[in-house]
Amino acid sequence: MENPCHCTDHLRVYVDCVGKHLAMAVVRCQPDDTGVTAYTGDGTEISAGHLALTAGARSRRIKGTGAETLPLGTERGYHILYRNHGEQVSRPVGWAEAGLYATPMAHGLRIAGTVEINNIEAAPNAKSIAYLKRKSHEMFDPLSTPDDTWLGHRPTMPDALPVIGPSSASSRVILAFGHQHIGLTLGGVTGKIVTDLARGQAPSCDISNLPPTVWSTGLDCQVFRRLASLCSPFGIITQALALAASGR
């Protein structure tokens, strides 16, 4: 996929054909026995039979959903873009030792890599950007100055699994977030699962190990980091990469 924005643009066109797209910030919701009312920042009320919370790393910010107390963290990744060097590779090329990928995109050559567990409001780590610049120059002939830098916030739970299922606050609120790096890959099947749950049908695949009720109390970022290193092999790798990046 050379331009992910094109994918989201097509999805928006489809939504407009079958429903309605509203660019509003939902700040809280109020579920009851018959449905859910969502309240936007300007006071608009939107009522529906169910509400699907799919706000990624920002899912805890919407009050009344039951997601506020979940130990949702952010696995932050970086990339830099060289607009005039897209021809350097014809396909994604990984450099395992350096922990990065070079990918030809519609707008140029993207160098992406490094991982860190941190608060969503934390400032970007300048060392990670400098590392990508240095390694991209080692991987290829000396390149120009990057034309763009990017920091992404991947929604991450301590066990490295997404949260998918009815909220502890109400079965009318369906939570679906925490897909880490592969939200685009798992977006379609997650949407199907959410649709099945909203219709009162059994999901087409087993989600018994993904319910929000697994996490009954909120955890701060420091505890999250510790759990991330203990709960999964991927968490250990994440911590190792974050520590390595901070010392580069």
Can you walk me through this structure?
With 248 residues, the chain is of the alpha+beta class. The protein folds into 2 domains: 4-72 and 158-217, FAD/NAD(P)-binding domain (3-Layer(bba) Sandwich), CATH 3.50.50; 74-154, D-Amino Acid Oxidase, subunit A, domain 2 (D-Amino Acid Oxidase, Chain A, domain 2), CATH 3.30.9.10. The protein contains 5 helices and 11 strands. It has helices spanning 4-18, 126-139, 183-198, 221-231, 233-246; strands at 26-31, 36-40, 45-48, 51-53, 73-82, 93-95, 100-105, 108-118, 148-156, 163-166, 173-177. The strands form 3 sheets. A 5-stranded antiparallel beta sheet has the order 6-7-8-5-9. Strands 1-2-3 form a 3-stranded antiparallel beta sheet, with no helix packed on it. Strands 4-11-10 form a 3-stranded mixed beta sheet, covered by helices on one side. A hairpin with a 4-residue loop joins β2 (36-40) and β3 (45-48). α4 (221-231) packs across α5 (233-246). The model is unreliable at 229-248 (pLDDT under 50).
